[in-house]
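User: New here, please read:
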Amino acid sequence: MADLKSTQNDADVEAFLNTVEHVGKRADSFKLLALMHKVTGLEPKMWGDSIVGFGEYHYRYATGHEGDAALVGFSPRKQNLTLYLMGCYIQPDDKSYDELFSKLGKHKLGKSCLYINKLADVDMGVLEELVRKSFKNMQTYYPA
């Protein structure tokens, strides 16, 4: 999510979301914005030109690569809504995520991303719980 081209900036989040061409995806983006704001209590920030993020953490890999990224975030991509929920993956022994993902509805998983075509395809309560758990895990793993 946060290679150097995706740095936090002062671009207007709502203005960006209003540029989403597909009406349904735009509406879903504003719903995700509200959900993530509710869960985190933080104001959204733009990361690069297409990621809306909440909070921030600094990472450093064994290779020496380091940078900053949002604790949770999303991007309304052309093919799908991409949610960045790295906290779902930092505790590989925590099987509670498997149960939540099984209850979520239609989705795909990537390395640290959750892909959803439209919010109508998923259970919003389960999605909120996934965002909450991921956010809390990231706060624990990367304390401010």
Remarks:
- The helical segments are 13-17, 23-40, 96-104, 124-141.
- The chain has one domain: 8-141.
- The chain has a mean pLDDT of 93.
- Strands lie at 8-9, 45-47, 51-54, 57-60, 66-69, 72-76, 81-84, 108-109, 113-116.
